[in-house]
Each structure stands twice: as structure tokens, then as C-alpha cells.
Amino acid sequence: MWSLGAASSVRPAGMANSMAKCGARLGGSSGVGDAGDGDEVRARRSPNGRKLQNNVLGVSVLAIYLVLVFSLNVALVEGKHHHHHQNSGGVGGGHEEFKFDPTNSFISLVLPHDTYPGYSIQKFSANFTGPNSPFASISSYSSKPLNYRLLETDYSKYFTVLEDGMVMTTADLSPLVNRPVKLVVLEETPNSTATHQLQLYVMNRKDMLHFPTMLADTVGELGEDREAGTRVRDLPLLQANSARGAKTVIYTIVAGGEEFALESSSTGEVGSTVRIEEPRKHGVWLVSAKPLDREQKDEYTVVVEASDVKKINKAQVRLPVRVTDVNDNRPVFGKPDYRFTVTGVKATTPAGNETITWERFTSLGKVEAKDADGDKVAYRLTNPSNTVVIVPQTGELLLAGEPDMSELFVDVEAHDLRTPSLKSERPARVLIEFVAPDPLPVIVQHMGHEYQHSHRRDKRRVTRAVRPTKRIEFTEADGDTEGRNVFQLEKETDRETFKIRDENPWVTVETNGAVRVKKKWDYEELGPEKTIDFWVIITNQGHNARKWVERKTIVVVVVEMKSCANFFIQSLFETSDDAVVQLNAPPNTPVFTLQARDPDTDHNIHYFIVRDRTGGRFEVDERSGVVRTRGTDLFQLDMEYVLYVKAEDQNGKVDDRRFQSTPEERLSIVGGKRAPQFYMPSYEAEIPENQKKDSDIISVKAKSFADREIRYTLKAQGQGAGTFNIGPTSGIVKLAKELDFEDLRQPHVYSLVVTATEDSGGFSTSVELTIRVTDVNDNAPKFELPDYQAHNVDEDIPLGTSILKVKAMDADSGANAEIEYLVSDDHFAVDSNGIIVNNKQLDADNNNAYYEFVVTAKDKGEPAKTGTATVRVYTKNKNDEEPKFSQQVYTPNVDENAGPNTLVTTVVASDKDGDNVRFGFVGGGTSSGQFVIEEITGVIRLHSKAISLDRDKYELNVTAMDDGSCCVNGDATIHTSTAVVVVFITDVNDNKPVFKDCGTYYPKVEEGAPNGSPVIKVQATDEDKGVNGQVKYSIVQQPNQKGTKFTVDEETGEVSTNKVFDREGDDGKFVSVTVKATDQGEPSLEGVCSFTVEITDVNDNPPLFDRQMRASARTSFAYRHPTRMQTTTVP
């Protein structure tokens, strides 16, 4: 219902779209009434007190406003409707700036009734520089308007417009509740004017729809692969309502994709839009519309909108939904084959030979598999190897022993750590190459270099010039059918194909050149040029694989069909009374307003009186349509004055002499008086039960058309007499006594009648007043029990299993008594009925066998009140845990000469269920080769028989098995886990170095050779390994010998002279040498080698005569043959 005094074509949001473009009837409005259906109405009231019609004369201010509006010649078009959002504070629009657009100058907003004065609603600004602006012809003035002002209406006192175009509230909007309000902002420049139109709809905030605030923190979960129609877990029943209760709510998914739907809790209907009757009892569930795949998308945000039937009152809620994982993916290796290369370390043996050694536990490389479910992955070798082991947790391959070949192939299998576990569909093949530390051959490097290059083949492509633009003219009717072939593009050759370059909303282009209608053409929606422009790409596949690509612009000019005549709309009031003129109305008194609307954007409407049956008593403003009185003669009581009128669009010519126009319409005006009229057909108010006595509740006022004082009276219908009173002259209704909502003797709804009577025996009229008393939230919810307990709950129950039910009551009424439940532990969830279910898998092992949390009952009052209770859930243990080793790989060391029963290591495993753990070897039993394991302790020893540790390492696969002693029937499910024990055999220094070739050493050195001359290279070997087999050399000094005549290199065994020898001197012909070899063990062992070095003669002495020679001979003989010395004198 539009308010008193509004005189324009404004409608509630959505109403204008329901009007047909052609053929509506002529209507209009007096100051407060409606001309009805236009039928002739004769005088029906006598001067002796018969009641006149409810329509009266228009207000002069209203007439001025209409003159301004209709003289601007600015097209009125439908506007966008901005609905409120529950998180927006209830007010649409905010400070958003609205750019002037002549094709869309009308916007609608919803405001709550308690919007404070000074709130900024909408800012308007004009764009003078745009080609489509109504001010485009203005070039000599500033680009900004000189002034904004609000045209005067009955609503003007509630709003104002600032100099910068900002519209603000100036008063309490409560009187405008449930009434559409239209404001017109006049924008002025030195020689032009324009208008901005703003439609507002004021609602009581308690009538505004809203979702529960708890949904803001709620996250739903849905298992992947679940069938369509599965409800999203953890999301309660979605119920949007207002504080006073809505009758019907329509729920729609407005964002979030096609993966979800809504299910009605009352009918079971499933769809993207669901209608709910009795929204306080029923709502919608969010369900899946198809199976989801977590690996493609693991989280969604679904936006659900609730609205009333008229789509004015709206609220939205954003619902995050997580897709939970199901083990439906096997681990997949990053590549099927791996190739790793390990380079040895060059070393030289004591004999001088080069050898290659391999460092134990060298990392060879790493294989990697990924599980699309996000599970952790473990690795194992399909066939154990003495050379390579794999770390199960990381996939890293380690060198465990000396390789005995240049390359090795192993297969690695991956499995996820889920129960039940999935393994890779096929193992990864790993090639390990053991190479020398020399650089790669040049040819290999060259091949690698060549491999980095690839041949490139360039395709030749020729682009020709753009073809001439094609311009075609069609009418709007040519594009009225989607899919229609409008025209065909011409081909220059048969090899040409066509493709539209950019997507166009109006047309599509097929490869054969057919241009089809994509969307029905609407002349009013096209741009200012009224054309459909698009580029076409033309591809010509010529001979010899040569391709030409050309472009062409297509311009479709759409011509408007002027076939739709103007039509009139009805007046503002829904009554069917005639227009009324006061008997003593002076000249130029507005009586009625004619209003016509043309769907064309370039209309120019004029109003005319075609036939005047009143004798010239009335005239009509050609541009505004306002019907006014003429002359000073009095009008006669109950006399009917008839005018025939029509409207013409002077921009829509039919021929050279005629314009498009409406049919003639009959307007009936009756002379007489009328009773006072209230500003609204009925009044409603809502007050809380704690409203203060004598406080103002509502103002109920009427207008006297005889300019007399009005007195007001109030009467209760049914219960409630004396509860309220009314100011006799002010019309303000006040509370006369205190209220109590819980008092059953007091009604919650009071039906009252307010009567307005003119002084001095004038007319009177009455209106209904309904006052509703609302409950105040002054009671908190209370649980039936202070604490709740659930016993013997299996820890492996499925998710969503009902565990127990709690219940709370609230002494209040309505929304104040509606309760929602919350829990403090995310292992659990609770629905609106108080049923508690498990939200996560329970675990009796990590939580001392019970869960304790708080459940909260929260009412829906404002502000909400809460009550709490304690919940304990005692879980029953299940044998659902496998034993866990302290480490996955054990690497102990054992001496090679270890005897029977020698301790090797101790493996440790524990079971979270509390089961006893027993150890063994894979395959069963407690012995494996020369090793045994103690079943209870996990101690691994050598067996008690003869021991022969002749390998570098031994790999043992041990198991840990629980016995199910933790719980009843626990032994029905036995769990086993495995670990790897790699026993490395440590060498013992039990072999001394040996000079195997000592008996063959007969070195010689010339006398006189310089100091440091090489003599011989000795070599000793040690059968031990590692440092125990490393040998160092030294010279053993002879007894009673000063210094050493020889030296030896301790690493290589090279023996060299340590002096210059003289065969004829003290050194003699032979010299003895002893070399010692010492290993590096602890303690070290030694070996020696003694041999004789012959000093070879060099001719280094001159001949001697006589006595010199004989003396020399004796000396030489004695020196060389000391045992043959005789006591003989030479003569």
C-alpha cells in the first residue's frame, strides 16, 4: 500500500515487471484516492449526511512535485533491487556510488525501521562526458552538476540530499514500515536538469529474515564418493526466520556450483530451490547433488539464500563444506623407472695396485610415490638384497655391502599406511650403476650434449589484410527466436571456415558461416548505437598445407518497431471511488493526475482533453498530466463531471499527421465533501512485555479535508480494555498499565479501533489498530540433568552414531524459547533435538577411556541466554592398534669371532591398546639362521651352536604381534608389524702381517750410490679387514749398530739407502737388513722380513806397488775373510 500523497508510478520492487508493454487502461490519482476502473459513477450521496467517497482532492505540494517530475522528460526505467543481507546491518546500499545511466536510473533498497538518522543511503553522481549522457551536448560548463535537491513529497521530511549527491536519513523511519517510498533527486546545471529516482522499502527489523548466527562458525563435512542426496554432516537443519515469524520461506542455492542441492524437511523435495511453509517447524537440509571427488576439490563454499515470496525480504548464509577422504587411491610412483649411479673411491693397495672401495651406508638415491588421498607412504623391496636396503619411511636406498657387479636391478613396492592398506599397482624398477671415479668418456658427454638438442620445424603462416566491414540492417522481430538463422556469411572459396572471435551475447557463428540468434533481441537492452557488432575469424586451408587467416567485422543494425502504444497505469490507492472536487475549490486546484508509461526509451508523452462534458470547469497540464479546476463558480454537491482524455507519444509518428496514442479514457469527478482519512488503511505496533507505562507506542493520525480540528477516541475489541489510551488531539497511543507476557490473563494481541471525528458535527472515520506484545528473553535454558553419561561406547563406532540425548527447556515463548545446542569437543556434534553423535573416530587409548565436555543450550532471543551441562562418554577399548617398533631399521655390530649366545641387539615394540607383545622372525618361529630372538623380551642373540660368521652382514626381518589381551574378544583380531635388523659383522685383528715373498728378496746396490737410492720394495699382507688389515713398514735396527743404513717408506714399503756404501771399506760386500710390518689393529700385530743387500763393486781404487800393495792386500784380505786370518808374516 502506497502512502498518502505519493503521486508517481513507483511500485514495490518486482511489481513493475509484471505490467504488459501494451494495452493497459487509463488511470490516475487524486491527492489520496484512486479513479478505480474508470466506469461512470453517478452521484450517490445526499446532502443530509450520506457518506461521500473516500477519495479527496490532491495536495498542492504533490501537484508541484508532479509538474517537476513530468516536465523533465527523463525516461523512467526499471531499476535493480538490492536486498538486505543478514551481515550487512540490514541496510542495503551503504556508501556505494551510483553512476548516472539513462537506461538504468532507478534503484531499490531495503532499510530496517530502526535505521538511525544521518545514515548514508546512496550517493548519486552524473557522468557528463559520456556519449550516452543526457548532458552530452553540454560542453561549456563544468563536468559536475551545480546543485542537488530532493523534490518535495510526503516522505521528504525523513530524508535529505547533500551537495555532493549523498542521500541521508533525517528522522526515525518507523512510520514508514512496510511502505514503499519513492524519492526523486533533482540534479541541476545552468541549462539542463536530470532526475535520479530511488525507491526504498522500509521493514521492521524483526520481520527481516535471518539465519542463526551459529551457522557462521559451522563447517560441514561430506565423504567423497557418497551418492546423490546424502546430507552434509555437521550442518543443522537450515531455518531462516524473522523474530515475528514468516509464513513462507523460499530457499535457493545462489552460489557453490552444481554439486549440492536442498532437501525439504517437510516434503522430502530435493532441488536447488525449495519452498517451505511453516518455516518455524520446517527447513532444508544441504545434500549432495552428485558424488564428489576429494582429489579434484576438497572444499566448497555454498551460499544459500532465503527469501519471502515477493523476493523483497532476503538473507544469505555461506556454508563451507569439506570433502572427507576415503582410501580409494593407490600410491603411484613419480616415474616407473629410476636410475641411480654411485661412484666408488679410488685406493691403492700396499702392493701398489689401484682398487675401488665403496663407503657403507652411502645414499644411492630416493624413490618417491604419492597417494592422492594424502596418506603417508611406506616402501619395501620386493626381493631382499645383500647389497641394498631401503628406509621404509623415506624410500631412500642405502648401500649395505660391497657390490659384486657393475649394475644391480631392484624392485620397490609402495603401500599407504591406512587400514586396510593399498599398495602400488606395480613396483618401481630401480637400476643402480656402480662406476669408477674416472670421468665419463668424451663420446658419452657428446651424446648427452646432442640429446639436449631437438629438431624444430617452423610452420609457415600467412596473414592477409582484413576484409571490408559488412553492415546489415534487421528489425527487432528478426531476432525474436533463439537459434534462428538470421543470415549467411559469404564464402570466397569452399575451403573457408568461420569462427566468432569473442563471445557475443546476441549471436553465434557456425563454421559454415550461419549467423544464429543466441538470445532474443531486445531493442531497449542494446547499447546506444542499437547495433550488434562482432569480429569473425575466417580460416582458408589452401593447397600445399598453406593456411590463410583473415578477419571481418559484422555490424547488425537493429531498427525499433514502433508498434507498442502508450498505456496508463492505475492510481496509488486500491479503492474504486471517483475523484472528488471540493464545492468551493479555487482555480488551479489539483484534482487528479493522469499518468502514462511508454516502454520505448525515447518517448515524449503529452496529455490532452479530447471531449469536455463539464463546460470548461477543468483543464489538464499537457506535460505533467495534472487535472486542475478552472473558474470561480462553486461546484454542485453530488454532481458528476465527466472528461474524456488521452496521451500521445509525439516521438512515435504513425503517419505524417498522427502520433501513437492511447484510446480515449473516461474520467469522472464528483462534487462534494468527504470524511477525514487516516494516512494508512490500518496500523500495527509491536511492543515488548517490559514496555514502560505511559510510554508512547504509535501515532495514529487522520487528515481533515474541511480543515477542521480532529478528535481521537480508542476502543478495545475483546480483551484489553483500559490497557491503552490515546491523546484526544495528538493521536498518540500510550500504554496505560504494565504488561506481563507470561500472565495468561493478558492477551498477546490487542485489537483496537481508533476513531477520528471532525469538530462541530463533522464527519468521522475509523481505523483498526493492532498491538502485539512480544516476549522478552528473561529466562535462560535449563537442562533436565546437570550432567549426562554414556557408558560402554565402542571406540570404533561409525561416524555419526547416536550416543545419547540431552534436553533443555526455556520458560520463555517464541524465539526466546527455541533452543539450539552446541558442544565444546570437536569429537562430537549435537543436532537441534539434542542428540549427540560422534563427529570423529573415538580412541579409548589416548583419552583415559572417557571424554568429558560441555554441552550448551542457547536460545534464540536477543540477546541470547545459555545454560550448560556436563557430558561424559566412557569408551570401551577395542584391539584396533598394531604394535609399533621403536625404530624401523636396527643396525647392530657383531665381532666376526663372536661365540655362541652372543648378544646382538634388543628390539622394542609397544601396543597402544595395552596388549602384550611377542616377537619373532618373519615366516614364524624364533630362529633365523645363526640368530635367535627371545619371544617376550625381543633380545636377539647368536644361537648356542658353532658359529661361522663369514658374511659382511645379515638381514633379519622381525615381527611384533599383539595378543588381544586388552579387551574382550581382542584375540579375534591379531595385529602384526615388522622391522628390519641389519647385523654388520665387525672384523677382529687376529692375523699378523706376512711377507710372503721375503725369501725371494736379493737386492743389490752399487757402492758409492748417493744417499736415498732405491734398493727394493717389500710388501706384507694382512688377512684382516679395515684398519686391522692396514700395514705400515719400519726398519729394525741391528744390535750394536749405530743408526740405520737403510730407510723404508711406511706406506709403500720402498727401501732406500741411508748412506753412501764403500765395498772396499768398512761396509764390505754384503749388508743385512730387517724390515718390520705392523697392522693398525688394537692391539697391533707385527711381521718381519730379513734379507742381505749385496754391495756391488765399482772401479774406484788405483793400482799399488811393492809394500803398498802387499799391505793393502793384507788389509783387504783381512777385511774380506776375517775367519781365515792367520798369524803369518809376509816377507
UniProtKB/TrEMBL annotation:
One of its GO terms (molecular function) is calcium ion binding. It is a single-pass type I membrane protein. The keyword Acyltransferase does not apply. One of its GO terms (cellular component) is plasma membrane. This is AGAP009725-PA-like protein. The chain crosses the membrane at residues 54-76. It holds the Pfam family Cadherin. It comes from the Eukaryota. It is found in: Cell membrane.
